[in-house]
Amino acid sequence: MSYSITALPGDGIGPEIMASGLEILETLAAKFQLDFTIETHPFGGAGIDAHSDPLPDATLAACQKADAILLGAIGGPKWDDAPKRPEQGLLALRKALGLFANIRPIQVPASITHLSPLKQEIVEGTDFIVVRELTGGIYFGEPKHWDENGAVDTLTYTAAEIERIAVQAFELAKTRRNKVTSVDKANVLASSKLWRQIVEQVATRYPEVTLEHLYVDAAAMILIQRPTTFDVIVTENMFGDILSDEASVLTGSLGMLPSASHPESGPSLYEPIHGSAPDIAGQDIANPMSMISSISMMLRQSFQLFEAADYLDQAAADTMAAGFLTKDLGGDTSTTNFTKEVKKRVKGGE
Ligand code: NAD
Ligand code: IPM
Ligand code: MN
């Protein structure tokens, strides 16, 4: 069986962590005799440079025909004033592929609790998933415009959009610890009032799952105070964006967190939750764990290659446990060396 992957390295540290991830994937493929066909395409700032478009037509077409898509990261100061920014390419890609369900797992295994800036007893055992709605809300609502005198963004959700993301969260919770925390701002926002009502309705179909509601401000606090109380968090686009970056700190670094984005049908996309990190790009110090774990999510969720994914996760965890840590986690291992150490463990040489 052959699996086709469209790779979008993007900008900043994107190409560095993509190179790391693909090298490791190649080693894993040799070990498990798997056949991956990988096509690389320009996207984001690289798309603007090559084709004056952050999402060139050929890149979108390659994504549409792939079995799965791997994305590094996009954006950077070079394109901040471009007529169409790299970020617009990312939003357009998510919309074009219908990637409404963004799954962001946050785990702090015992071996890395000491890397968190929080007390070990607070983070130990943290294991939850943020289910972020990815194709609606204030990111996409119209009208949206600004000039010197004023600006408008529009926050819209249809009942159908809320229902389908809620179903994703409840289905996930059923495979885990049977708890869903829905995060909204129903004390202020009309869209959140509807959100809460629809989530309540969906919950009646899942009697085995406990549902709790939190306002987003309180949720931000509880994430830091008692993160182990969460199982599945479901929330709208912008709240999910902010809370998941906050949650990454529990693990010690934003450079640790992967994600999967699923459509109703068609290829899924896998990407770190972080950005292109222009402040460290080109220095060979980026943490590639976010990309390695995104690849492992792809192996599981798009290809059902569970054994290979487990093996990859173990090799990466062993590498960290052996003391190979990038700078963001207080170590001095380069991206290149970390990659080499993971490959060594994938080959079984350690
Ligand atoms: P960022 O996520 O790029 O970086 C935030 C901080 O985290 C920086 O200090 C950075 O060095 C660090 N960091 C991030 N990933 C790391 C890694 N793998 N290893 C080590 N350190 C890491 O956020 P930002 O600086 O606010 O944004 C930079 C650009 O990225 C912007 O153009 C933004 O729009 C874009 N962005 C893109 C995506 C995406 O491609 N999905 C996501 C977020 C931001
Ligand atoms: C992310 C990013 C994007 C988002 C930006 C770059 C559009 O922050 O993937 O989390 O806000 O969704
Ligand atoms: Mn983000």
Automatic annotation (TrEMBL):
<dbReference type="InterPro" id="IPR019818">
    <property type="entry name" value="IsoCit/isopropylmalate_DH_CS"/>
</dbReference>
<comment type="similarity">
    <text>Belongs to the isocitrate and isopropylmalate dehydrogenases family. LeuB type 1 subfamily.</text>
</comment>
<keyword id="KW-0963">Cytoplasm</keyword>
<keyword id="KW-0100">Branched-chain amino acid biosynthesis</keyword>
<keyword id="KW-0460">Magnesium</keyword>
<feature type="binding site">
    <location>
        <position position="132"/>
    </location>
    <ligand>
        <name>substrate</name>
    </ligand>
</feature>
<keyword id="KW-0560">Oxidoreductase</keyword>
<comment type="pathway">
    <text>Amino-acid biosynthesis; L-leucine biosynthesis; L-leucine from 3-methyl-2-oxobutanoate: step 3/4.</text>
</comment>
<comment type="subunit">
    <text>Homodimer.</text>
</comment>
<dbReference type="Pfam" id="PF00180">
    <property type="entry name" value="Iso_dh"/>
</dbReference>
<dbReference type="GO" id="GO:0051287">
    <property type="term" value="F:NAD binding"/>
</dbReference>
<keyword id="KW-0028">Amino-acid biosynthesis</keyword>
<feature type="binding site">
    <location>
        <position position="217"/>
    </location>
    <ligand>
        <name>Mg(2+)</name>
    </ligand>
</feature>
<keyword id="KW-0520">NAD</keyword>
<dbReference type="GO" id="GO:0009098">
    <property type="term" value="P:L-leucine biosynthetic process"/>
</dbReference>
<feature type="site" description="Important for catalysis">
    <location>
        <position position="139"/>
    </location>
</feature>
<feature type="binding site">
    <location>
        <position position="217"/>
    </location>
    <ligand>
        <name>substrate</name>
    </ligand>
</feature>
<dbReference type="GO" id="GO:0000287">
    <property type="term" value="F:magnesium ion binding"/>
</dbReference>
<feature type="binding site">
    <location>
        <position position="94"/>
    </location>
    <ligand>
        <name>substrate</name>
    </ligand>
</feature>
<dbReference type="InterPro" id="IPR024084">
    <property type="entry name" value="IsoPropMal-DH-like_dom"/>
</dbReference>
<feature type="site" description="Important for catalysis">
    <location>
        <position position="185"/>
    </location>
</feature>
<feature type="binding site">
    <location>
        <begin position="275"/>
        <end position="287"/>
    </location>
    <ligand>
        <name>NAD(+)</name>
    </ligand>
</feature>
<keyword id="KW-0464">Manganese</keyword>
<dbReference type="GO" id="GO:0003862">
    <property type="term" value="F:3-isopropylmalate dehydrogenase activity"/>
</dbReference>
<protein>
    <recommendedName>
        <fullName>3-isopropylmalate dehydrogenase</fullName>
        <ecNumber>1.1.1.85</ecNumber>
    </recommendedName>
</protein>
<dbReference type="InterPro" id="IPR004429">
    <property type="entry name" value="Isopropylmalate_DH"/>
</dbReference>
<comment type="function">
    <text>Catalyzes the oxidation of 3-carboxy-2-hydroxy-4-methylpentanoate (3-isopropylmalate) to 3-carboxy-4-methyl-2-oxopentanoate. The product decarboxylates to 4-methyl-2 oxopentanoate.</text>
</comment>
<feature type="binding site">
    <location>
        <position position="241"/>
    </location>
    <ligand>
        <name>Mg(2+)</name>
    </ligand>
</feature>
<feature type="binding site">
    <location>
        <position position="245"/>
    </location>
    <ligand>
        <name>Mg(2+)</name>
    </ligand>
</feature>
<keyword id="KW-0432">Leucine biosynthesis</keyword>
<keyword id="KW-0479">Metal-binding</keyword>
<dbReference type="GO" id="GO:0005829">
    <property type="term" value="C:cytosol"/>
</dbReference>
<feature type="domain" description="Isopropylmalate dehydrogenase-like">
    <location>
        <begin position="4"/>
        <end position="342"/>
    </location>
</feature>
<feature type="binding site">
    <location>
        <position position="104"/>
    </location>
    <ligand>
        <name>substrate</name>
    </ligand>
</feature>
